[in-house]
Write a structure and sequence with these properties.
Helices cover 71% and strands 8% of the residues. By secondary structure, the chain is mainly α.
Length: 190
């Protein structure tokens, strides 16, 4: 006796699983490439951060490689160098590797793992951008003392908390089970 619905599910499930290891390896390779090509990544990040700073910081904003120069035309312009340690790169690489490992293990659904990865990457990018903005605002208001407090303490704590939350979000979204709709009838009618 054949059960078309069971055979159909098995075929669909195996097709999803067969692509997952390849995509898992691909995500890990992308993480490695991002680490190797980190100079270009940081330059792109500096350009994106400059667009955000333009909205909130008085004066003009310019970019030179991975340095954002802000407050131009004001009494004291400042520069914000986006180093490897401060870049969103150090947040995204572990997330990509974790998602790749989840797909290699094969206990998560491909679409849900990628959705969780997307949300986690967006969270960490936004948090790091807010961190850069807060550093720039503190530096303009209080000079290097403001820079030090926000860069080394407040901003770092913010990013650590958001990174932990992002890992949690990735794990929760990727591990959600597929919900089935059951035709529930009241117990009396059974």
């Amino acid at each position: 006796m054949t059960y078309p619905t069971i055979a159909g599910r098995a075929r669909t499930g195996s097709a999803t699983r067969s692509g997952s290891p390849f995509l898992g390896i691909g995500l890990i390779v992308i993480a490695g490439l991002m680490a190797i090509l980190q100079d270009a990544f940081r330059e792109g990040e500096a350009s994106a951060v400059s667009k955000v700073l333009e909205l909130f910081i008085p004066g003009s904003v310019a970019v030179n490689n991975s340095t954002v120069i802000y407050g131009l035309g004001k009494s004291a312009p400042f520069g914000l160098l986006i180093t490897t340690q401060c870049s969103t790169l150090v947040l995204w690489v572990p997330l990509l590797v974790l998602a790749g490992i989840l797909l290699l293990i094969g206990r998560t659904q491909l679409q849900k793992t990628l959705a969780g990865l997307g949300v986690a990457m967006a969270m960490t990018a936004a948090a790091n951008c807010v961190r850069f903005l807060l550093i720039a605002l503190a530096q303009q208001a209080w000079g290097m003392q403001g820079f030090d407090v926000v860069h080394h303490w407040f901003g770092s704590i913010l990013v650590i908390i958001v990174m932990a939350a992002a890992v949690g979000v990735l794990l929760v979204i990727s591990s959600r089970k597929r919900t089935r709709r059951r035709n529930k009838r009241p117990a009396a009618s059974r």
